[in-house]
Specification:
- The chain has 7 helices and 12 strands.
- The protein has 232 residues and is of the alpha+beta class.
- Strands 11-5-10-9-8-7-6-12 form an 8-stranded mixed β-sheet, sandwiched between helices. Strands 1-2-4-3 form a 4-stranded mixed β-sheet, with helices on one face.
- β7 and β8 (139-149) form a beta hairpin.
- The longest helix has 15 residues, at 165-179.
- It is globular and about 55 Å long.
Amino acid sequence: MLKLLGRDDPFPAPESALKEPNGLLCAGADLSAGRLLDAYRRGIFPWYSGGEPILWWSPDPRMVLFCDELKVSRSLAKNMRNKGFDVRIDFAFARVTKACAGPRKGETGTWLSRDMQAAYLALHRAGHAHSVETWRDGRLVGGLYGVSIGRMFYGESMFSTETDASKVALVGLVEDLRRRDMPLIDCQQRTPLLASLGAREIPRREFLRRVAALVNYPVPSGNWTISAHVSA
């Protein structure tokens, strides 16, 4: 039976998550900054649709991208060189989350509700959530956002209105994380796009072990609010 959390209840152990649906751990609680940060530190993330209670997940296996394993195809490198993309960090966080909330092709509705957007905006203002944006000719054409704790980055969602724009943002993120000695991005679940860029699945046990070490490192120095130009 799925555990229902009250406002002050702790999360159950991630290892107790259901196998079907894979990784569903518990429901309830709230989306306060403290609750979200506690979840990420434990390898847990929220994911639910409108009309549902807040659902918390920790799937096994877990999709991750080791920054040193990023793959940039020839076509992506060519577009990065020739299409005039500019990558910026934290210039338009709210616009990125709103764009990520738009319905996907062939789908209706969104998992990224207004409450979720507000929760991540609060994390952004607290210095833990960041957006990486792809701009072209002064227009926001793609991007992603996620959560940073210690030397760990948790990717949440991506969007793109032009070919490769979200991939360019991910390349920009990886370059910035490498400079900060942050080796790992949590991608949550497998997608063909992430796999094409070098992300792979690892056992939940290994993921939790790595997270426990990385979140307890000192926060890397440097300001996230910078302009970054990706290299092909």
